[in-house]
Design goal:
There is one protein chain. By secondary structure, the protein is mainly α. The chain folds into two domains: 94 residues, Orthogonal Bundle (Arc Repressor Mutant, subunit A), CATH 1.10.10; 45 residues, no CATH class. Helix content is 50%, strand content 12%. The chain contains five helices and six strands, in the order ββββαααββαα. Strands 1-4 form a two-stranded antiparallel ribbon. Strand 5 and strand 6 form a beta hairpin.
Length: 145
């Protein structure tokens, strides 16, 4: 359990070797700390606040800065790596990955292909969006896991 002093604790400033980064962990939030960290870093990567190639602080440094357990930060980093947003280069550290950009581009192409199919079969945009929402809610299909 985190003591109340960890509420609003932040990790500001350069991320590893450059790039601005701010993370705030709210210990009173029902969202687990690893998920708060994971989602904030993912958002900063996706909105290019953290650019490709930015070196992230070590797990130990991030844990110390935020007042979190090393395993908590490690879990957030592992999930970011599994999502292709960061890559770990052994003792050299963890870096924002270009794979995240490639994944977004792949998603944009798939969306364009989907839009073309929808137009060709005469489904309106509202229905097409409902179909996408249902597909996202049901999770990945076995062939896409």
């Amino acid at each position: 359990m985190h003591d109340p002093r960890s509420v609003g604790r932040r990790r500001d400033g350069p991320a590893g070797d450059g790039g601005p980064m701010m993370v705030v962990i709210d210990s009173s939030s029902p969202v687990p700390p690893f998920e708060q960290l994971r989602s904030q870093l993912a958002k900063q990567i996706q909105d290019h606040t953290l650019v490709v190639g930015t070196r992230l602080p070590t797990v130990r440094r991030m844990a110390a800065d935020l007042g979190l357990a090393v395993n908590t930060v490690g879990r957030a980093y592992r999930e970011l790596e599994e999502a292709g947003l960061i890559e770990t280069r052994g003792r050299n550290g963890s870096f924002v990955s270009a794979a995240g950009e490639q994944a977004r581009e792949r998603a944009r192409r798939a969306a364009a292909d989907y839009a073309a199919v929808i137009a060709s079969v005469g489904i309106d945009a509202a229905e097409a969006i409902r179909i996408v929402r249902a597909a996202l809610a049901s999770g990945p299909t076995p062939s896409h896991q």
